[in-house]
Every structure is written in C-alpha cells, then in structure tokens.
Amino acid sequence: MVNEYKNAADNGTITNKMAADEFIEFVLTENATASALASLTFGSTNAATSLLQGVFAFDLATLNTALASAGLSEFRAGTIIAVKGANLGAQNLTYNPTSAGASNHDAWSLELVAGSGALDRSETIVDGNLSVDNQGGVIWVSSSVPASKTDTSGFLHAFGHDNAPGAIANAVTSLFGAGNILSSTIGAPKSVYNSASTSVTLATDNNSTMAAPNPGANTTWIVDNLRQLVPEPSRALFLLAGLASIVMKRRRSK
C-alpha cells in the first residue's frame, strides 16, 4: 500500500526522472520476494490527476542485495520501502528485521534512490517524471505495466490529493474508497500520509516520517499487527521447543 508521499518546495529540480527533494513510501501488507516486488510498477499522475505520468520499478539486484545481507528469502510484512530523490541522501539497505524489535524502524525499512534502487521505465507508453504538484497528484502501485495513460486496471493501491479530481483520482475513489483522495490542494513542502490502516485516513503535515510508520493508528497497525505476522527469533525458538516437547510426549504415549 501506499503509505506516504512528500512534495518539495522546488519540484522543478529533476534527477533520474524524479523530483530531487521528494519521496514516496510503501508498506508491505504481506511477505514478498524480491522478484515479486520487482514485477510491480509505481508512479504518479499529472497535476489534474487525469493522466498517469512517471512509471518506475524496484531494481531486482538492489532488493536481492538487501535480502542477502539480512539472510532472508523474502521481505517481511510491515516492511516500509521509501523511494526518494537524489537530494535526500544515500540509499539505506541495512534491512535486518529478524535481529531487531518491531519498533526498530530502521531495521524494517529500505530507502531507495531514484536511478539506483528504483528505476524509471521509460520504455513504456507512459513516460514522464515522478513528481507531485501542489494542485493535485496521485501516487499508485500496480501489479502490471499500465497499457495507457489512463489504465488503472492493475492498481493494487493508490492515494492522492486534488480539489477537482480527474479521471485517475476518480478511479482511485471507485477502487479503494473516497478516503483515498484528499479533496484539497496542498502547499510545499507537505507530507500526505495514511494515519490509519487498510481503511485509509489521509492527513497532511509540514513534517514527514520517511521510512517509518506515520503518527496515530498507522504506527499501531504496522508495529503491532503487520510486523507480528512472523514470530521474532526468540518467539520462534520458544514455539519450536514447545512443538518438540509435544512430539516427544506423543511418541511416548502412541
């Protein structure tokens, strides 16, 4: 799901097809392999929210590097992936959720820089810059490459803002509910974020929480729900020990 995005005071500075001082953020609601994530596309819309604009994809090699360093075969539910412009610092691939508690957000996150960990799909029919306008914009993630500038058929999730929603914003409302489009323009720099869970509630702030859960129920949902779907190492060992004890007892009796 899309979890947050932030526009910039000067989104006219574009590097590697993304506004250099902006970021977008996703949260995984289930475990996912690197290949599964690399098969997705994501991007933005024009200011009128009527046409898809930039189309990006996660870089498979970068995702595999992060998993290998963590000793995992897939990314865990509750992982947050931020895709950011070149002016927001270096990539952060220190992903290692099994060695940290659910509240250690750095261990549960990736920060990918446009042009490196996230790559522009300029060969597609939809080609443009990934940027967010004050007047309107939608950030989306799709299971497929859009076939046209109005193709929302593969959308897994999206949300955005526009006080006069266009075709894409209206499609998002139809697909995911009215709460996924904030009916207003926004200033810059401004963060638009989900303050809740799968039942999206959008809020705005001058500050942001890049690569970390958002204030309110969003933190509870990610930390206490999504990140508890897989037992922590100590809990897993406890469960295995209990299972071994049960097996031994059954063998002795039957």
Record the SSE blueprint.
Layout: E1 2-6, E2 14-15, E3 18-19, E4 23-27, H1 34-38, E5 41-45, E6 52-58, H2 60-70, E7 80-84, E8 109-113, E9 118-120, E10 136-142, E11 155-162, H3 167-176, E12 181-182, E13 191-194, E14 202-205, H4 217-225, H5 233-253
Parallel strand pairs: 7-8, 11-12
Antiparallel strand pairs: 1-4, 1-13, 2-3, 4-7, 5-6, 5-10, 6-9, 10-11, 13-14
- Main β-sheet, in a few words? 6 strands, mixed
- In whole angstroms, the N-to-C terminal distance is 48 Å
Radius of gyration: 19 Å
User: Which spans have pLDDT < 50 for at least 5 consecutive residues?
Assistant: 231-254
Description:
The protein has 254 residues and is α+β, with helices and mostly antiparallel strands. 22% of the residues lie in helices and 25% in strands. The chain has five helices and 14 strands. It has helices at residues 34-38, 60-70, 167-176, 217-225, 233-253; strands spanning 2-6, 14-15, 18-19, 23-27, 41-45, 52-58, 80-84, 109-113, 118-120, 136-142, 155-162, 181-182, 191-194, 202-205. The protein has a six-stranded mixed sheet with strand order 8-7-4-1-13-14, with no helix packed on it. The N and C termini lie far apart (48 Å).
